[in-house]
Amino acid sequence: MLQAVENVSKTFSKENEELKKNLVAKLESITDESEVARLEPFKPDKQKTADLNSLLNTLKVDVKKPKKKAPESHLAALKIDNVYGADLSGIFRNANFKEESGTVSKLTTWEMLYQKELELLATQPPSNGFQQMILWTKQGKFWQFPIDNEQGLEEEAKVGFHEHVFLEPYLNPWCPRRGPVRHFMELVTVGLSKNPYLTVAQKKEHINWFRNFFDAQRSILIETGAIPDVPSKSPPSLSA
Question: Which GO molecular function entries does the Swiss-Prot or TrEMBL record give (predicted)?
Fold first, then answer.
């Protein structure tokens, strides 16, 4: 992809580096947008979640445990008059203990395990299945039944897969049939067709941006022979 950008920028005699930076910046913005869409947390249906919470709130779980009788002790109680009444042994009277220096290095692994143990002690796990489902629902991890791998993509269900994959026809009204610009845009359309995190409208918007970008540089492209000198017709917007 970077080689295609380099080939396109070489067709311009002026502002070579500026053109290259603009194209690379646009490609990086598409990558960032796809990454944000991929990492966006799933948002469950609020109405279904509210109905499930109301159902779980009406359920009561009996957590009473049977009382166990303490075993009776058969030993007689010991009577202690004075614990400290015995004589001292004196074995540690002449002992020399070395104090630890303050520059002792700590092991980061033990510190990390200690912090993890504190987190586990502070976080109470769910005591039953209902509390676990409530926790998952609050975290947005609860799936509606029957399980559907396309849950949350109701709007994309109305769009055919061919609109995501076959994007090359959007190049025909304005892109040249051969040359570095055509090669670059073919790579862009192939990358967008394989991107599962962008909608069709977003893919058309990115193609429309490249069309406007090259149309602004049309005079330079004609002078360098990158595109033929044909009167340009303003094609319809791709955002529709």
Answer: structural constituent of ribosome
Distance CA 137, CA 145 (A): 13
Report phi then psi at 88, rounded to 5: -75, 145
Find the mean pLDDT for residues 7-13. 65
Under DSSP, the state recorded for 181 is: H
Q: In angstroms, what is the C-alpha Rg of the chain? A: 35
Distance in angstroms (rounded) separating the CA atoms of residues 68 and 221? 90
DSSP string, 76-87: PPP--S-GGGSP
The secondary structure of residue 158, as a DSSP letter, is G
If DSSP codes are grouped into helix, strand and coil, which group holds residue 18?
Answer: helix
Close Cβ partners of 216 (under 8 Å, ≥ 6 residues apart): none
Q: 85-131: per-residue pLDDT in tens?
A: 777 777 877 777 777 666 666 778 999 999 989 887 887 778 888 88
Measured between alpha carbons, how far is residue 197 from residues 87, 153, 192, 202 in Å?
A: 80, 11, 9, 10
